[in-house]
Amino acid sequence: MFPYPSFSSAEMLRRREVVAAALSEAEVEHLVVYGANRAGSAVQWLTRWPVTREAAVVHTPGEVDALLVNFFNHVPNARRMAVEADVRWAGPRTVTTVIEELRARGAGSDTRVGVVGALPYQAFQALAEAVGSVFDLNAAYTRLRMIKSSEELEWLRRAAELTDLSCAALRDNAAPGHTEHDLAAMVEGSYLPLGGSNYIHYFAVTPMGRPQQCVPSQWPSSRTLAVGDVLSCELSTSWGVDYPGQLLRTFTVGAQATPLYQELHDVASAAFERIQDVLAPGTTPADIVQAAGVIEDAGFTTLDDLVHGLGGGYLPPVFGSRSRTLEPLPDLPFAAGMTVVVQPNVTTADGRAGVQTGELVHVTSTGCERLHTFAHGLGRIA
Fold it and tell me: Cα(122)–Cα(94) distance, rounded to whole angstroms?
């Protein structure tokens, strides 16, 4: 029995086949995939190895992947996980070993090589000097990740279950006097024994009568919960690596919601329901923004993205509501197999008060499917 969450051999073969098609389309012979400091989803997607300090994959259609891993003491674990790859130490300079491997595969001064991942500039220079030309294939890789396979969907369903457990732990155990660090311990304690891992857990705690924060912070603080506060959270638990659920909810602490917070949440709920009703294959971001117009019609705005893809990265399409468009609205239509987070973070115009509601959903052939089961609505703790 494989001791880690693992995709089937058929799924791993499917990935190699779609990568081969992408390389053929780009007229590229070899692919270098790079990751460092626990970032680099393509390394894990192709080989099963979650990047630790540094890793590079030399991928050639029809050949065994070479997975080059640093540190040296990480190689044994990588060999246990990346069972289809030839796993070796990356050497004192990873790019040098990558170039040696490419040459062993026949690459020369006229060879076209693709790159996926944030390859450092000096490494890119060395690679470009060693081969004919280097092509950025990150956009092509992103397209491959946008439509989920059936196995990937099952992983995301499990991640949603674990994320729901984390929110239930928060709802059932948080009380006045707890710090945001305590809240983090509560949510992580719900899924760590079950094999889940933290993707994010963000919190916003502020008094409803004197609000000073409209969106969760990325780093927890020592601020303590008090009666009359409002707590908003954005929780994501991963199953395996890079397959998170995402749940956004708001709770009042030991008190009824003030009229302002009740109105904010009513508007957020209406926006979520309207988006959910129209989200289907062929729907455009413009259609979603129009559906969420209830936010601006009520005199409110948003700070967070309204919708973004998730599962294999922070994926397109990514956009805000009508009053918070940071860049031109994408024209990419939604398609069956996408998994996206719908998250109307409705705030006051002055940015002092806000609520979170939303979750990861699956775009099906006919509409929109919930992956989470945690109840909708404005909650109350303590």
Answer: 11
CB 131, CB 111: distance < 8 Å:
yes
Q: Answer yes or no: do 185 and 295 share one domain.
A: yes
- Does position 1 have pLDDT exceeding 70, yes or no? no
Answer yes or no: is 316 within a domain: yes
pLDDT above 90 coverage of the chain, percent: 97
Q: Which of 99, 118, 100 is nearest to 35 (CA)?
A: 118
CB 337 within 8 A of CB 147: yes
Is 174 in a helix, a strand, or coil? coil
Q: What is the pLDDT of residues 163-204, one digit of tens each?
A: 999 999 999 999 999 999 999 999 999 999 999 999 999 999
pLDDT at 2 over 80: no
CA-nearest of 164, 167, 172 to 184 is: 167
**What is the domain count for the chain?**
2
Domain that residue 333 falls in: 150-381
The residue out of 145, 162, 197 marking a domain boundary is 145
Q: Which tokens in the block code for residue 319? A: 């956009």
pTM of the model: 0.96
Cα distances (Å, whole numbers) of residue 256 to 177, 179, 311, 325: 18, 21, 36, 33
Q: How far apart are CA 44 and CA 41, in angstroms?
A: 5
Task: Report how far apart, in Å, the C-alpha atoms of 288 and of each of 202, 284, 291, 292, 364 are.
Answer: 25, 7, 5, 6, 16
* Termini Cα distance of the chain: 43
Q: Rounded to the nearest 5°, which phi and psi values hold at 301?
A: -145, -170
CATH number of the domain enclosing 193:
3.90.230.10
pLDDT tens, position by position, 313-366: 999 999 999 999 888 999 999 999 999 999 999 999 999 999 999 999 999 999
